[in-house]
Amino acid sequence: MTPEVLIPEAVIGRRVDELARKISADYAAADELVLVGVLRGAFIFLADLTRRLTVPCRVDFVALSRYEEGAEGGPVRLIMDLRVAVTGKHVLIVEDIVDSGHTLGYLHEMLRARRPASIRTCVLTRKPDRLEVELTLDYVGFDIPDRWVVGYGLDYGDRFRTLPYIGVIDTSTQA
Ligand code: IMP
Ligand code: MG
Prior knowledge:
By secondary structure, the protein is an alpha/beta fold.
């Protein structure tokens, strides 16, 4: 089954351009920015975003997962930590999607404890109706409805990540 298009490729491209311009302007005075990508979903967004930034960047990754505990998901688990030390650095977390917000909340707390010079968040998509935790999102690409989205890095059971657009699928009919 082919996912139904929610956000076409060209629209994503224009929005990533806008986000990159805003971030580049906001960090124009910074000597360096550490981009922290959340694996695996953020890899395509991060690759497109970082190539459009004009501020000098380092790129690093963390991998996080929710323990499976029923449909709602359990606590967040750190699977892979950063290689770079972020103490005293300007940190920008780059994430594909914020649903309940637990994953990003956990990562934000974890990195804040390392005393970066600053820490902000950039998310490609957000499901505003689903947010369960208090979170400041500094840069948001798109607000989306409460549907399961795939493509542009986002998956369903590890499928659909490499679609160039963001689509929606009906999870009740997926094998
Ligand atoms: P949260 O902790 O509930 O905010 O969940 C965030 C994580 O759940 C994301 O990093 C994704 O891995 C996954 N996720 C939530 N909603 C979707 C979706 O619609 N499509 C693909 N992944 C999703
Ligand atoms: Mg993710």
